[in-house]
Amino acid sequence: MEWPTIQECRRYLTKYCIINKFEVRKPKNEGYRIRAYCKAEECPWMTCFRKKPKEFTMKLRKIVLEHTCYADPLEHNCMVDANFIVEELEDQITLHHKTFKPSDIQKQMFYNFHIEVSYWSAWHARANKVLEKLFRDYDGSYRMIPELRKQVLLSNPSSIATYSRDMENGNQFTRLCIALKGSLTGFVTRCRPIVGLDGCFLKRKYGG
Question: pTM, whole model, 2 decimals?
Fold first, then answer.
């Protein structure tokens, strides 16, 4: 058996272990070969993959299929991480990103592999992997604030659009204020002169 890259070989090994309900340990993270042993003590299962000379292709060199250990009855496997979840469910999470919650990811992974996934791994896969790829990361979004202000003023003349930065703290963004012209005019001409204040809290990567 062969794989075109070491990354694909690692993904294959991870999925093989998860489907067959066991975990492996790797003595070293090497760029030219992969050696893996069953994590259970005294279990003889092992495998070795190695790059072909002057190529990126990985080839299976050795495998011992005998297992003397038993699968986890609680259906846990530490090899199921956020990266594996994304590889398996990225299209589904992307398509239904508004309604597909971490709890749904947990249910889908149990349905697909009969394996328990922690809520944190499911949340991390959705928020920090798929949604950041779909909507850009938080840092990239903050860097677009000047362009947002510019577009608001171009499309809604006479609106209010301002932002500020803390120049003494690495040019860090501090606040943003947007009030569209239509909303301002409607408030002045049609609404009672009462201003209400409410709190809006940021609960993601950058709180506030």
Answer: 0.66
Q: Which of 106-120, 121-135, 193-207 has the lowest mean pLDDT?
A: 193-207
> Do residues 36 and 13 lie in contact, with contact meaning Cβ atoms separated by under 8 Å?
yes
Cα dihedral across residues 88, 90, 96, 98: positive or negative: positive
Task: Output the CA–CA distances (angstroms, integers) from residue 71 to 22, 99, 122, 140, 180, in the order listed.
Answer: 6, 33, 22, 43, 60
Domain boundaries, the chain: 2-64, 82-135, 144-190
Which pLDDT belongs to residue 9?
Answer: 94
* Residue range 149-189, pLDDT digits in tens: 999 999 999 999 999 988 888 778 888 899 999 999 998 89
Q: Is 93 exposed, middle or buried (0-12, 13-18, 19+ CB in 10 A)?
A: buried
DSSP string of 107-137, one letter each residue: HHHHHHHS----HHHHHHIIIIIIIHHHH--
